[in-house]
Amino acid sequence: MKKTFRNIYHSFPVQLFVLHFRKVQVLLLFWYLLGSTINSGFMKTYGADGLFFSPEYLGNVNAWSGVIVGVALGVFIMSWNITTFILHSKRFRFLATTTQPFVKYCLNNALLPLLFIFFYFYKLYVFDTSKELMNTGEVLAVMGGILGGFILLLAVSFIYFFGAERTIQRTITPIIEMDQHFNQSYMPGHFTEDRFGLKVSSYLGKGFRFRQTRNVAHYNREFLDLVFTRHHFSGIISIALAFVFLIVVGFFMDSPVFQVPAAASILIFFAAMTAVIGALSYFLQSWSLVAFIGLLLFVDVLFKHEIIDPRNKAYGLNYEKRELRPAYDKGSLQAIASPANIEADKAHMLTILNKWKARQKEEKPVMIFINVSGGGLRSAAFVMNTL
What we know:
Elements lengths: L1 H8 L2 H12 L1 H14 L9 H6 L9 H26 L12 H8 L2 H20 L5 H43 L23 E3 L5 E3 L8 H30 L11 H23 L3 H17 L25 H7 L2 H21 L17 H10 L1
Antiparallel strand pairs: 1-2
């Protein structure tokens, strides 16, 4: 029995799970925020949990909205896998001697994502049936969409990495054949342990079967690093392509088709932050925290000097030269608020609105404005429920 527990503890999935809590606590913060949100803890008063349980796309909560959230969830999990693979690869060099090391890493690193997905689906079913009053078929449609989008993203990702694996094998095979150190026999039945302290006796491999790790002490360290470096580059390229895609999609956000559910936006943002923090940790090592704080201070300076200016600009105002702005006082306001100026401004704005209306392709529904006094969101929610 003791040997069985020892083998379980030293299996690659368990060792990876423990390693995350030892080495990448900052990245685990995103998992904590997601878990707390779907547990109706974090941002509950603002309805953050409902964004994940009832994702809305084009005004509907259905399988298609679930697909988008599922794809975004896949992006987040793949970003987590790629980032931790790059950070931890020096601790499991035995993977370099296997085929498709990154795919095997994802398989063994699935414990935390699977726990999250099961918990997410459980909370989604309870929330949608009890609070959204959706029937079982509607809930299963949303869950099926999320699962389908997630599987689709994983399939596309693994197809990419399978292709990258073949390219890597073609480039390093001549190197292996030229060096006799790569063709020596290995000693089975030994744990693989390096100076970083990760001891692994078995890993989940092809056919979902556990296989014994091979001793890589006799392998050339430069060769093992070369294999991982090639896979690191493939992972970085995939993240870069995903970011480029997101930037391109951002230019079309005015179209309802590209207005994805809020939950998907949150997951994609967390995926981006995971990659950025991972990159800082990888390249700067122990200086990563200092660099991150410095980056925050630098961005703060850019905001203060309005080099980065996220404000919505009012039409006709000069935001670059403050001295050219009109005086904001009672006298200046009374001077420009003449009947002639008001009529001219009204006529000009009507011209703008008519031109905008002429470009619309379909008739807009009637819009009803409700003016609620004081209290903000709570007051508005009370009025809506009362009506």
